[in-house]
TrEMBL record, chains A, B:
Residues 82-183 form the CoA-binding domain. SUPFAM superfamilies: NAD(P)-binding Rossmann-fold domains, Winged helix' DNA-binding domain. Belongs to the transcriptional regulatory Rex family. This is Redox-sensing transcriptional repressor Rex. NAD(+) binds at residues 93-98. The keyword Isomerase does not apply. It is found in: Cytoplasm. It comes from Allofournierella massiliensis. Pfam families: CoA_binding (PF02629), Put_DNA-bind_N (PF06971). The gene is rex.
Length: 212, 212
């Protein structure tokens, strides 16, 4: 493919999973070809945006005759999941939120492999989360040296995240799924951070309901 | 304030909670005045964007001499939380994710009042989630008629969300915090939907780690 992935903007990247989900459904429903306007209708956008988005990745085939669903799914899947190799991942924080989001890491479909869970609470150590062992946070250094995780999921409060994130970066973590309010990307501009700020999401819904 | 809130774009709205959090911290730290460039540095943006964002809401005071922290916090708080009245809310789905996100609804700080939780599983009925009772989903109609919730949080799979969302709209729900992959805003264009698609968030992190 003759695209330059380095230049793809974040909003386009953030739409890829949605394309992937919709096109998976079409494939399951036996659809073989799809036009940009059909995709646009499903996505709640315009055909021109769909074509523009796809052009960031080389276009995915001849748009005049419609896109081939199998090819689209394969190509978008390859962008999202590489050649199938999973990203070795640790979860920090085994509270309610950590327990809930671990599901997204342990399913086969998202491209991650959850190696271990860490928590500060001694009473959780030795327990497991769907079969993944919970370690004490003090074991972080030895575990990372041995198992080389690349991604850390932060399900802990702001102060805990502030304290731990430098250690994680030093230990080779290059991607964060960050549920805390600590803004990692400012002190560590070279790591990739995906923020999942649920409180912010809820507050902005409140704004829209109160002011629309 | 002489602003026209109807025209504020979604990206600006989505930044409001972050401003609110940062400015709260400044207030706690005893900061009295703040310039747009100081705010920009904390937010990881530019001073010009900060001023542009604030101008959507009337500007929040004289930027030449810096913004007054108390005024900023009060005004942004009023936009996010109104005059303090909480939005009556129900949660549909008492699984792991529902249990985790209920915390965001039961804290005092986000502007919601969680009235009840609903689930299809008979064995959960009569239990509670941090003191909020779990009802069977069949009680939805009678509960909503009596208590008039305005917001529904959907922590259930796509098919369940597809099935229930029309009922909820008919029952007067006008805002959704949607964790399911069902795309509510297409069948119900008049409701306000805030999607929290955690799987998509994780996949787009994967893209960035694999292709950057």
């Amino acid at each position: 493919m003759n695209h330059s992935q380095g230049k793809v903007s974040l909003p386009v990247i953030k739409r890829l999973p949605k394309y992937y989900r919709y096109i998976s459904q079409m494939q399951q429903n036996g659809v073989v070809k799809v036009s940009s306007s059909e995709l646009a209708r499903m996505m709640g956008t315009t055909a021109s945006q769909v074509r523009q988005d796809f052009n960031c990745f080389g276009g995915f085939g001849q748009q005049g005759i419609g896109y081939n669903v199998d090819v689209l799914l394969h190509e978008i899947g390859r962008l999202l999941f590489g050649e199938g190799e999973k990203l070795p991942t640790i979860l920090v924080g085994a509270g309610r939120l950590g327990r809930a989001v671990s599901r997204f890491l342990t399913t086969d479909t998202n491209g991650y492999h959850l190696l271990a869970v860490f928590d500060v609470q001694q009473e959780l150590v030795g327990q497991d989360l769907d079969g993944i062992p919970i370690h004490h946070i003090d074991e972080l250094e030895s575990f990372c040296a041995a198992h080389k995780p690349q991604v850390a999921v932060l399900c802990l409060p702001r102060e805990g995240a502030k304290e731990i994130s430098g250690r994680l970066v030093d230990l080779g973590i290059r991607g964060f799924w960050n549920f805390s309010h600590y803004d990692l990307s400012i002190p560590y501009p070279n790591v990739t951070v995906e923020n999942a700020h649920l409180g912010d999401s809820l507050m902005s819904l409140g704004y829209r309901l109160r002011n629309d």
